[in-house]
Amino acid sequence: MRTVAVINQKGGCGKTTVSINLASALAAKGHRTLLVDMDPQSHCAVGLAVPEEQIEHSIYDVLIGTGRGEPMRINEILWQICERFELAPSSIDLAAFEQQMAGITDRENCLRKVLDGIRDEYDYVVIDCPPSVSLLTFNALRAATDVVVPVEMGYFSLHGLSKQLETLNVLCRQCDQHINVMVLGSMYDIRTKMGREILAELKKNFSNRMFKTVVNFNTKLKEAASLGQPISEYDPSSKGFKDFLSLADELMGTDTKMHRAELVNSLQAKLGVISASAEELLATLKPEPKQQIEVSSDGPTFEEKLADFYGVHQINGKVLFSTLYPRAETVKIAGDFNGWNPELTEMEKVSEKGKWQLQLPLEKGTYRYRLVVDGQWQQDPYNELTEINPFGDMNSVMYVD
Ligand SMILES: Nc1ncnc2c1ncn2[C@@H]1O[C@H](COP(=O)(O)OP(=O)(O)O)[C@@H](O)[C@H]1O
Ligand SMILES: [Mg+2]
Fold first, then answer.
1. Which of 58, 112, 231, 366 lies at a C-alpha separation of 20 to 30 Å from 356?
2. Same domain (yes/no): 348, 228
3. Are 262 and 344 within one domain?
4. Are residues 321 and 216 in the same domain?
5. Are residues 74 and 183 both part of a single domain?
6. DSSP assignment string, 115-184
7. CATH number for the domain that contains residue 386
8. 47-70 pLDDT, tens per residue?
9. Selection from 173, 156, 181 nearest residue 12 by Cα
10. Which atom of ligand 1 lies closest to the CA of 217?
């Protein structure tokens, strides 16, 4: 039995998407596969349409039972997702695991003991980890034969990457078993130059510690999750599923026999280089500091006038978003250029009247986005170009040339 922990302390880099769909691809290839959700947020249950209100017992009960010497069989909590694919769901109680286990010896080995008890029943166990360095993640690491670190291929992913890897390295050193650590490029958008550069840099640095397979950004993966299905069921002909089949093949073919010290050291040796090149890349790709457009004494230039109109405009090789929300507290932008994460691109209020602006350096291409006004997602009221999205809402569309 191989146990694959999907770890990255950063949220939103694709851990849950990778966990669910890698598990489904392994099952589709004929392997008996168990997905264990170690994140108290229970995103695996959500993404696989397991009704949360009907989860009576979760991995929390099994782990706590093991820690306290009153074991509960993991089989009692499992949900069948499809053929050969089962889920051990989590629950919010898991957030209190660390506190509940305080003072209990061997608390970092609870999951390992649980999985040891079923090693003949499964070929693969995939563990979805929370975005934190906690006792839960450490339990996953202790149980693991393999670690997959998804790294989102966007500008914001480089922030803190070497720190994340360093933490992982420290944790790996505290494990006594062999662990095969591999980096996986995720949410890759081949159309952006930045994505291609980041991928090339990671490949250069990690070489054999990086999967050749890259998980492309594919809206089918998002749709599948929102409808509660693995991609193998939702759209087996999609690019998203092909990526996961190829990842499963590669994982099945990787050698787990390399010596532990060698693995950890190879990662350690790379950290300095990765850190330096990430900084360098960040500097070259850096979005310009937000600028307030000032009207010069000679009267406004054409571009300055353009900037006064709301909507999206290309100015000096950048895209300027302008909008008017007089009463809003926050206005953010979520789009396919930032993994639909509004936290990464907050607009700035530039006038008392309630004008909000943000400039982004975007490569040539077609983009879709929505504005998030005080937490409410909506289309850009000043952009006429729209497109219906899979959820029946309107995305705003823009072309950068
Ligand atoms: N390859 C991908 N293509 C499209 N959307 C993706 C992809 N990977 C992740 N996402 C989306 O990005 C968001 C964050 O992904 P998720 O897997 O939940 O990350 P994490 O578990 O690391 O927080 C989700 O909305 C998910 O649907
Ligand atoms: Mg997650």
1. 366
2. no
3. no
4. no
5. yes
6. HHTTTTT-SEEEEEPPSS-SHHHHHHHHH-SEEEEEEE-SGGGGTTHHHHHHHHHHHHHT--S--EEEEE
7. 2.60.40.10
8. 999 998 899 999 999 999 998 888
9. 156
10. 3
| Ligand 2 mean position, distance from CA 21 (Å) | 13
CA of 10 to the centre of ligand 2 (A): 9
Q: Give the amino acid at 26.
A: L
| Shortest-distance ligand to the CA of residue 339 | 1
Ligand 1 closest atom vs CA 11: 23
Site to substitute for ligand 1 among 8, 17, 132, most atoms within 8 A of C-beta: 17
pLDDT score recorded for residue 203: 84
pLDDT score at 153: 81
Number of structural domains in the chain:
2
> Residues 249, 334: one domain?
no
**Please, is 99 exposed, middle or buried when counting C-beta atoms within 10 Å of its C-beta (0-12, 13-18, 19+)?**
exposed
Indicate whether 26 and 162 sit together in one domain.
Answer: yes
What proportion of the chain, given as a percentage, has pLDDT over 70? Answer: 85
Q: Which ligand is nearest to the CA of 225?
A: 1
**Residue 251 to residue 8: CA distance in whole angstroms:** 18
- pLDDT per position as a tens digit, 309-365: 788 988 888 999 998 887 889 999 999 999 999 999 999 999 887 889 999 999 989
Domain that holds residue 209: 2-282
Q: Is residue 330 domain-resident?
A: yes
207 and 312 inside one domain:
no
User: Which residue's CA is minimally distant from atom 16 of ligand 1?
Assistant: 14
Question: Which residue CA neighbors atom 9 of ligand 1 most closely?
Answer: 14
Q: Which of 222, 235, 239 to mutate to test the pocket of ligand 1 (most atoms within 8 A of CB)?
A: 222
Question: What is the CB < 6 Å shell around ligand 1?
Answer: 11-17, 43, 131, 186-187, 215, 217-218, 221-222, 225, 339
CATH number for 59: 3.40.50.300
Inform me whether the pLDDT recorded for 264 exceeds 60: no
For residues 35 and 110, membership in a common domain is answered with: yes
Give me the mean pLDDT over the 203-208 stretch: 78
Six-digit token string for 310? 């709301």
| Predicted TM-score of the model (pTM) | 0.71
Statement: residue 130 has pLDDT above 50: yes
